[in-house]
Design goal:
With 429 residues, this protein is α+β, with helices and mostly antiparallel strands. It has 17 helices and 16 strands. The strands form 3 sheets. It has an 8-stranded mixed beta sheet. The chain has a 5-stranded mixed beta sheet with strand order 13-12-14-15-16. The longest helix is centred in the first third of the chain and has 20 residues. The protein is elongated. It starts with 16 loop residues before the first helix and ends with a helix.
Length: 429
């Protein structure tokens, strides 16, 4: 067999145990938080028929799809996000009771340029509420997002909110055509936190073909006090509706106890085509250059694309890899590749059954326990525990078994004590 060079595609990566273990613990915390709000888990296939995904993300999104013909000559694509597959599921299961509250934690794929905290394969965590047009659903997504970050130990964050209706009214006021021209302008505006006003102004004129006056109009809007939005859009029904929804959302955020973490940011545009109302992005204030770690919004028209009746829907998506990178930077998680808390030694073949029995009792008590494989000198077994960072070693030699006690050693402090089996299990539990 020919040798193959060991390598990984650009934008993809392996997660070794010292990263995967704390990452999995983070995901467990996220899932528990989602379920505490009544969201139930859902799983969908990694591969979809291409026509399920194409046309849902705009021209720019379509270019980032991993799309190919499979061995059956079917036109397929790897999922780009978890929202469009959810829309397909709802279209195929119209009998589901509403509102339908689901969460999904799964990898997605985008053929975009890799960067800091940005990969071509990454895990998303989504919560969505389908079948509720009321803004209480939008506000609950904000509350869920805040609860997730707090459960992970993050207190310095901000949820920045806007409303797509305001942006739609703005573009109509400036005479910018609907469809792709309008979406292209929104994608440019959405780059403001990353590249700054001067660069965005240049792009609006050079790439989007806007006049200097139109660019001025956009930045006049972006500088408005949210309290003046209704007056600014006095002649626009859509703009008035957007301002009303934004103010209602802020009131609901206060009722939910997260108003101090919510900030209006009229530059938030969200580049995907399907958003229709509330939109939001979340930043770690101690590491804003990392970009948004959680984003989403309302998409009331997407679910009608799969043959069924249109359903109101709103959701928020957490970017796992980017958030995990932020938690590492902030020192809120540490690299740790060792799930084992206790190592039970094996003196020889005659004592191995007792070691296995003790390990089984510890595992039944919820203590992660490893039995040393292969036996050998005690020194070698203690060195193994020390190298792996295992907290406790239990010596189960013939003397200990004869006395009916085991020697428990704390590898960090060096302290030792002799305990009967039940007392040992209770101690470690």
């Amino acid at each position: 067999m020919a040798n193959v060079k060991a390598r990984v595609l650009k934008g993809f990566r392996d997660y070794l145990p010292d990263t995967m273990l704390p990452k999995q613990r983070m995901l467990d915390t996220v899932a528990r938080t989602f379920e505490s709000f009544g969201f139930a888990p859902l799983a969908t296939p990694a591969l979809e028929y291409a026509d399920v995904l194409v046309g849902k993300y705009g021209d720019e999104g379509d270019k980032l799809l991993y799309r190919f013909l499979d061995n059956g000559d079917r036109d397929v694509a790897l999922r780009y996000d978890l929202t469009v597959p959810l829309a397909r599921v709802v279209g195929m299961n119209p009998q589901m009771p509403k509102p339908f509250k689901r969460y999904q934690i799964a990898p997605v794929w985008r053929a975009e340029k890799p960067g800091r905290g940005r990969f071509r394969e990454f895990v998303q965590c989504d919560v969505d509420i389908v079948g509720c047009a009321d803004l209480t659903a939008d506000a609950e997504c904000l509350a869920v997002g805040a609860a997730v970050l707090r459960a992970l130990g993050v207190e310095d964050f901000v949820l920045r909110v806007n409303n797509r209706k305001l942006l739609t009214a703005l573009l109509a006021r400036l005479g910018i055509a609907e469809g792709e021209p309008a979406m292209a302008v929104l994608r440019t505006v959405d780059k403001l936190p990353k590249i700054g006003e001067e660069a965005v102004r240049a792009l609006l004129q050079k790439e989007n073909g806007l006049s200097a006056e139109a660019a001025d109009g956009i930045f006049e809007f972006l500088g408005l006090d949210p309290a003046t939005l209704s007056d600014w859009f006095a002649d626009s029904e859509v703009g008035q509706k957007g301002a009303e929804e934004l103010n209602t959302l802020l009131q609901l955020a206060a009722e939910l106890g997260v108003r101090d973490k919510v900030e209006v940011d009229l530059s938030i545009a969200r580049g995907l085509d399907y958003y229709t109302g509330t939109i939001y992005e979340t930043f770690l204030t101690a590491s804003e250059s990392l970009g948004s770690v959680m984003s989403g919004g309302r998409y009331d028209e997407l679910l009608g694309m799969f043959g069924g009746a249109s359903e109101p829907a709103v959701g928020i998506s957490l970017g796992v890899d980017r958030l995990f990178a932020g938690l590492l930077e902030l020192g809120l998680v540490e690299a740790d590749g060792n799930p084992t808390r206790v190592l039970v030694t094996v003196f020889d073949d005659s004592t191995r059954p007792a070691s296995y029995a003790l390990a089984g009792a510890l595992r039944a008590a919820g203590v992660n326990t490893e039995v040393f494989l292969g036996g050998g000198r005690m020194k070698k077994q203690f060195q193994h525990a020390d190298k792996r960072g295992i907290e406790y070693v239990v010596v189960a030699g013939p003397d200990e078994i004869a006395r009916g006690t085991y020697t428990l050693k704390n590898m960090r402090s060096g302290a030792q004590e002799a305990l009967e089996r039940d007392a040992l299990v209770a101690r470690l539990r």
